[in-house]
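HUMAN: Mind sharing a backbone?

ASSISTANT:
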Amino acid sequence: MSWPACAASRLRRTIAERDEKEDAMRRIEFFVNSWIFGEVPLEEVVRRVANLGYDGIELVGEPKVYKAGEVSRLVEDHNLRVISICGMHPGPEEGDLRALSHYDPQERQRAVDYVRACIDLACGVGARSVLVVPSLVGVPQYFRSKEEDTKWAVDSLQKAGEHARECKVLLTIEPINRYEVGLVNSIEDALDMARRVDNEWVRIMGDTFHMQIEEGDGIPNAIRRAGGYWLQHLHAADNTREAPGKGTINWREVLRALHDVGYEGGVSLEPLPKGASPYDARKGVIPREQLDSGLKFGLEHLRREQEVVLQYVRRT
């Protein structure tokens, strides 16, 4: 091989190695939200998630159940990490509302204490964020009114946000569709509340299943409207609530929008098999094979689509 040919070959190899390093830095990581496994022991959840090839888990927000040290050792042993703590509003026990927008100050204080405990858990396991829902999932009404509920939710998040700042853990407000909650349904609703809280450690997140109901201009446009500063976490399921790729959402465009805004968070999958409800998942009645099959399909689909997006990103 002539000297010019050798030089050209080395140059191509150098460029390819550089592109691979840059792609590795850009690649969005994929996680699984542990609540979809129901009452399955965390040890089994982590083992299954690792075997499926994910980067880690989002841990259900039950600080009284999980010890940070044990969780950290468990995920590290499987080369995984915890990306976020998924706040649960309400809790599993009757009367455990965790209602940040409640008119009763004692109820709000209990909700703030719960979020603070989730922040401590996040800090202990190395998670970057804690998901919060300002009202109650499954209750698509206000406690009093939109104005009053919003006022109390902002007040509660300001109090919890101080602890988030101290611990350097983000709080991400999740919008949920109008049929499931009464307060904060859209990305714009979440942005408005986060701005009112006025704390750099209180941001927002999205959930593609809810976004495809609420965002009239489409999920990619909603991501761009939110921008990389505000949008810090994303839940992923298709329009049917099944695994990404099993419905009609254009995941290539979703991922391209995330890359375009310089997204810094992870994507946490919480798909359910066709016909299954979140309540079925919480009870742990979804067969293992069915759940894992959907998770494997979704991960493969998203990684395949991301590689296409990275080719576009590399050229811009």
